[in-house]
Every structure is written in C-alpha cells, then in structure tokens.
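Handout, section 3.2

Students often ask what a structure token actually looks like in practice. Rather than define it abstractly, here is a full record for Haloacid dehalogenase type II. The first block is the sequence as you would receive it.
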Amino acid sequence: MAELAIDAVVFDVLGTLVDEPAGLRAGISALAPFSAPDAPDAPGTERLLLLWQRHIEREQRRIVEGDRPYLPSEALDREAAEVVARAAGAEDPDAVESLARAARRLPPWPDTVAGLARLAEHFPLIGLSNASRTALLELNAHAGLRWHQALSAEDARTYKPDPAVYRLAVTVAGPPPERLLMVAAHAWDLRGAQALGLRTAYVARPVGDPPASSDRFDLYAKDLADLAGQLGVF
C-alpha cells in the first residue's frame, strides 16, 4: 500500500499469531477427566477456559491501573492454573504446573509462519507481547516464530494497553511512531498503539477483540497473506 509509509511492523503475539485458546484447552483437558463436561456441577473445558481468561484479564488490568504490583506473565499464569485446577477438582501440584506451562505451548495459526517469513523479507519485524521474556522465548520456539526483535511487556513492568509497552517498540525501532505499523487481532490493543501514534492493522482471527463501528484502523486484513498484499509484499 503505497500511501502507508512504514519502516517496521510490530506484531502482537497472543491470539494474533498463536491460537491461545487452543493451547489452553489442551492443557485444561489434560487436568482431569470430566464425566459431564457441560453439567453446571462439573465445569467443562470452555467454562474453565473462561475462568482462566477472566483471571488473566482482571489481574493485568489491576496492574495497569496501579492496583497491584507488577508480576510477570508466568506468575499470573500460575495463579490462573490454580484457579482452574480448584474448579476442576484437580489437586496434583504437577498437574497445576503442567497447566501453567500450557500457556507457553500455543500453536501458530496456519498462516503465521509463512506470513512472517514473507513480511520479514521487506520489513524489520518486532514482536511485542504481554508474555514475559521467559514465556516469550518458549512461545517463539514452540510456534516457530521468527523475529528481528522480540519485546516483552516485562521490560516496561506493566501490560498493554499501557503506553509504556508500545513505547518499547518505538524506542527499539528508532523511527517515529507514525512509521511503525502495529498488527493485532485485538481492537483494544490497536487502540492502545494508536494513542501513541502508531499506524494500525487489524487481522481477523476466530478469537480476539473485533473492531467497533467507531474504530478507524489503517488496514483491515483477513489474514497475514492479505496484510502482506495490502503492504505491497507479493
């Protein structure tokens, strides 16, 4: 897209490049057998997944708002694993630890690896994730993600959408914010980047936070191949 002058592309990771719910479901399913997954008194996988997601979202928000001291993502994952294990009636510490680590074993979306490789031939690629440095290393290795630079919100000791996290990418990349393109499947993430002056691209995924009618992002793509095409990468 000729009119969108970009020097580097910044990618969200969780949900945008990897299928976070799928990885967590696999971890939850390994916790314990459910005799009646959909019964109110025997929480099914989806109900437990929702418990996990709500815990992470709530605690990250509390940290961003200053209501709780910063903790890295693997500490919050451990808390979420304990919440889910209690609800599932699983008390084995090894099982809880395995579930906590499931948050670092997330499969890539089918277009992710090839899409990143294609874009990397034309732009510096920066991963910008709420995952801690340790978790991000494992995520990248497990999903086969390749970056020119991978940045963790841990370096800002807060979480997106705190402006300090997006500022990490601006500082590392060098160009002014308007020369960076933030790519995410979460509208809230793109709004945070937009507030700091970054250009924005929404990539549709089965999970995530779709744009509202009031959102005005620079690009809307159905997948990474579509995004590459819109950026003139063929």
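Discussion prompt for tutorial groups: Residues 45-64 form the longest helix (20 residues). How would you have guessed this from the sequence alone?
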